Amino acid sequence: MKRFILVIGLLLLVAAGCGSDDISLEVENDPYYKEGEPTEIVLEAVDDSGEAVTGLAITGELEMEKMDHGTITVSFDDNGDGTYAGEVLLPMGGEWIMSATVEKDGKEKEQIVRFQVSEG
Ligand SMILES: [Cu+2]
After folding, report:
1. How far is the CA of 90 from the centre of ligand 1 (A)?
2. Ligand 1 center–CA 86 separation, angstroms
3. What domains appear along the chain, each with residue ranges and CATH number?
4. Which residues belong to any copy of the YtkA-like domain (predicted)?
5. pLDDT band per the 50, 70, 90 thresholds, residue 61
6. How far is the CA of 93 from the centre of ligand 1 (A)?
7. How far away, in angstroms, is 64 Cα from ligand 1 center?
8. What is the whole-number distance in angstroms between the Cα of residue 107 and the centre of ligand 1?
9. What is the pLDDT of residues 4-29, one digit of tens each?
C-alpha cells in the first residue's frame, strides 16, 4: 500500500511538472500618465515555481475599467530577463485592464492583467 501511494505521489509530481508552462504576468513598474507622452508598462512573467520566463511574445489590448475608450493595442519587447516592456499613448490615467496574449512555442494563452496608471 505504501508503495502504491508513493507511485501516485510521483505521478502527481510529474503531472504538476507538465503543467508548469502556466505563466502569470504582473505589471512590475509604476506606470504614469502624462498628456501627449507614451506610458511605459513593464510586465514580469513567471512560471508556477516563480521562475522568470523569457522568450515570450506578448501583446495586450487595453481597456479602461469604468470608461469606454475603445481598445488600445500595445506590444511588448522581451528584455531577456523575464521582463517585457511596452509603450503606449493612453488617453488618461486610472484603472486599466489588459487582455494579454502570451505566445510561447507557438501556443497562445490569454490572460487578464489589471493595473493602475497614476497621473504624473
Ligand atoms: Cu477614462
Report:
1. 9
2. 20
3. 22-119 (2.60.40.10)
4. 20-99
5. very high
6. 7
7. 6
8. 33
9. 656 655 555 555 555 556 899 999 99
pLDDT digits (tens, 9 = 90+) for 27-47: 999 999 999 999 999 999 999
| Ligand 1 centre distance from Cα of residue 108 (Å) | 29
The pLDDT of residue 60: 98
97-101 own/partner pairs: CB under 8 Å, 24+ apart: 97/62, 97/63, 97/64, 97/65, 98/41, 98/60, 98/61, 98/62, 98/63, 98/74, 99/60, 99/61, 99/63, 100/25, 100/43, 100/58, 100/59, 100/60, 100/61, 101/58, 101/59, 101/60, 101/61
Amino acid 2: pLDDT: 65
How far is the centre of ligand 1, averaged over its atoms, from the C-alpha of 33 (Å)?
Answer: 12
